[in-house]
Amino acid sequence: MSRAVIVGAGVGGLATAARLSASGHQVVVLEQSDEIGGKLGILRRDGFVFDTGPSLLTMPHLITELFADTGPPLAEVLTLQRLDVACRYRFPDGTVLDLPGEATAIPAALDAALGAGRGAQWTGFMQRAQRIWDITREPFLESPVTLKDMIRLSRRLDHVGTVAPWRSLRGLGSAYLEDPRLRMLLDRYATYTGSDPRRAPAALAAVPYAEQAFGSWYVPGGLYRIAEALAERARLHGAQVRTGTEVIEICVRGGRADGVRLADGSVVEADVVVANVDAAQVYGRLVSGQRARRAAARIRRTTPSLSGFVLLLALDHAPADQPHHQVLFAEDYDAEFDSVFGHASRARPVERPTVYISAPDDPATVPSSGASAWFVLVNAPRHDPVRGVDWDSPGVADDYADRVLSVMASRGLDVRSRVRHRTVLTPADLARRTLTPGGSIYGTSSNGASAAFRRPANRSPISGLYLVGGSAHPGGGLPLVTLSARIVAGIIGPA
């Protein structure tokens, strides 16, 4: 039986722990926080329960597969609920679109909300997106990306032409989508990877395809239950999950990782180490040596992903007929991306941001009938008190929270008089809680044609050390992090 130490109990770390322990490894998970889940966090206050990170589950077959591979099926552990309305979108001209959760119903809904012919425009784009998905899914999402994969793609000129690595997501969309509201809808999907649609590659067209092909899902009680279920699955196979345990160093001897050093000075020995930690932290703080310095330098040359500013609103008598997910688009989306992705010295909170609201109709998340627990998120620049935005500066967070509520009201959703209490979470709070530099949600962005190949690999340059999670290949978000765990467990193999 080999010994595996996993640093970090985010979804990637817990999923890897479940897979490795089920295949015979002796697994210890070490989490610096007092809570598991990483960015998939939870906050409980006065009977209200808020997910503080991901609020949408897509590609549910991946988590179903994970549980099937490691023991009793998912259906015996968690209930997944498919949403009839994937999301309500309010555009700057006041148009409202309820996007169906079933792909076959989307064209008619687009025609009804936006005008005849819009469904055909979107269908044409999605057909291209499906071809991109078919080409990229196995070599670029489900496998470690290697030079061999790049060469294999480059030899298929038809594949290169379909993926169009020289085009941006917005550029590809403009070739199919004449309606500016459809182009705005497509732009939104770039933010799923923390990216700017003007610079993100056309390959990200696979993101809306996957969401619409596999549906939008919720876990009653909150998505945090996924983290709890993963930890329980790992424990079922003998894994230890230790919280409040800070790792200060990944030990390397003879060129191979062989354990970790804790803040109390003790060492936990291992045959393999899996880091479910932001890659910049791994190579910049936890590992020393020339290989780590080179890896850290490569990360510094990439564009960090955006961060997020969150309001957790406990509401009394919430407005009726609200969908589970809702997006209130900015009047000037490009100004938003300029604010978030501009040079650090020019980064600033978005004046009138796009506002995302998750308002689950779930009695398990509220203390009484008529109450509602809303998660409100806007894109935000990273916490950078030296060169950019200092989210800890007195008054900044509360003033911006007031502004976000005012923007919501100006777009027809005024809940200010209904707020029983609110909790504000800034990029600085995210950075502290998850040890993510600046609070970047996805590590590096997907800005640029080569971004996928510059994302830190699952197999590190140090023997015996592997990376899993949103900052490593294949990227952030629950589906990709679940794939990341499958890739790492596959590389390590059974005990």
Helix and strand arrangement:
Layout: E1 3-7, H1 11-22, E2 26-30, E3 42-45, E4 48-51, H2 61-70, E5 81-82, E6 85-90, E7 96-100, H3 106-114, H4 118-141, H5 147-155, H6 157-163, H7 169-174, H8 180-190, H9 206-214, E8 217-218, H10 224-236, E9 240-242, E10 247-253, E11 256-262, E12 267-269, E13 272-275, H11 279-286, H12 290-300, E14 307-316, E15 325-328, H13 333-341, E16 355-358, E17 371-380, H14 396-410, E18 419-425, H15 427-434, H16 451-454, E19 465-467, H17 478-492
Parallel strand pairs: 1-2, 1-13, 2-9, 6-15, 13-19
Antiparallel strand pairs: 3-4, 5-8, 6-7, 10-11, 11-12, 14-17, 14-18, 15-16, 16-17
Features:
single chain; 495 residues; alpha/beta; five-stranded parallel β-sheet; 17 helices; 19 strands
Q: Which radius of gyration do the C-alpha atoms yield?
A: 22 Å
Q: How much helical structure, as a percent, in the residues?
A: 25-40%
Low-confidence runs of at least 5 consecutive residues: none
The share of residues in extended strands comes to 15-25%
Helix/strand structural class:
alpha/beta
Largest sheet, in brief, is: 7 strands, mixed
The span between the termini is: 6 Å
Our count of helices gives 17
Mean pLDDT: 93
Shape: globular
Strand neighbour order, sheet with most strands = 7-6-15-16-17-14-18
Oligomer: single chain
DSSP summary, beta strand count = 19
